[in-house]
Design goal:
The structure holds two protein chains of two kinds. In chain A, 31% of the residues lie in helices and 44% in strands. Chain A is of the alpha+beta class. In chain A, helix 1 packs across helix 2. Chain A is globular and about 40 Å long. The N terminus of chain A is likely disordered. The termini of chain B are far apart. Classes of the chains: A alpha+beta, B alpha+beta.
């Protein structure tokens, strides 16, 4: 691994939803339902199944890593410069479900890093000024 | 990766150096002479700053005849840019759509 941009990071989004885990599980694992909230796909609920998610802006390649009906689902999420794993966890909470999504990974592709940096650098400089001001 | 961060922060903490880098990002490749004309410091000073930027991987030089052309390598900023900000926004939008779908599935 090279040193640049390979640092693993994670993003977590968590929300309580007033629906039972079984229902959310269907939305997470049935292709025609996945398409409605995420992207077009050829998902199958089988460990080792390779599938892709596609939108106008690009394609994400995935492989199912783990599956525990109504409880947990994990797949790789590779594309657009990002190598990562997405893990869904469903926990009963009162009458509903706590749904948690964790994505862990790193940017592997310099092109994305380049584009991200080009788009992000004016904001970066604004932030840098603030950081440096605080560091005094 | 604190070392990479430190190097980038130290390199860009200098306002003259930062201005040179910003200009290369905005305007593309430039010669040392062209950069000096607007930098407000001497050519040896500009060359020295460009050398520091080059060491940090923030610029690349290209020799053509007697001229040295410098271009920005904004990819070097990647360690400071967190992809998770973009993905967090993406997933929050997906969560909203998922919740809308679940409501429709009730009916």
């Amino acid at each position: 691994m090279t040193a640049t941009g390979t640092q693993a990071r994670a993003v977590v989004v968590e929300r309580e939803m007033p629906f039972p885990p079984e229902k959310i599980w269907r939305a997470l694992t049935q292709p025609h339902l996945i398409e409605e909230w995420l992207m077009k796909n050829d998902f199958q609920p089988k460990v080792g199944h390779g599938f892709s998610l596609s939108a106008e802006w690009g394609v994400v390649n995935c492989e199912v890593l783990a599956l525990e009906p109504n409880k947990a689902l994990s797949y790789t999420w590779t594309g657009l410069g990002l190598e990562s794993v997405v893990t869904w966890t469903l926990t009963p909470a009162g009458a509903g479900t706590r749904l948690r999504m964790e994505q862990t990974g790193f940017t592997a592709d310099q092109e994305l890093a380049y584009r991200g940096a080009t788009a992000g650098w004016p904001r970066f400089f604004a932030n840098l000024e603030q950081v440096l001001a605080r560091a005094d | 990766m604190p070392d990479a961060h430190d190097l980038l922060f130290r390199t860009l903490a200098d306002p003259t150096r930062r201005a040179l880098f910003e200009r290369l990002c905005r305007e593309g490749e430039q010669t040392v002479g062209a950069l000096t004309a607007q930098a407000g410091v001497s050519q040896p000073a500009v060359s020295k700053h460009l050398g520091v930027l080059k060491q940090a991987g923030l610029v690349r030089d290209r020799h053509q005849g007697r001229q040295t052309h410098y271009s920005a390598q904004p990819g070097a900023l990647a360690p400071l840019i967190d992809w998770t900000d973009q993905m967090r926004g993406f997933w929050q939008g997906r969560f909203n759509d998922l919740e809308d779908l679940l409501k429709r599935m009730d009916q």
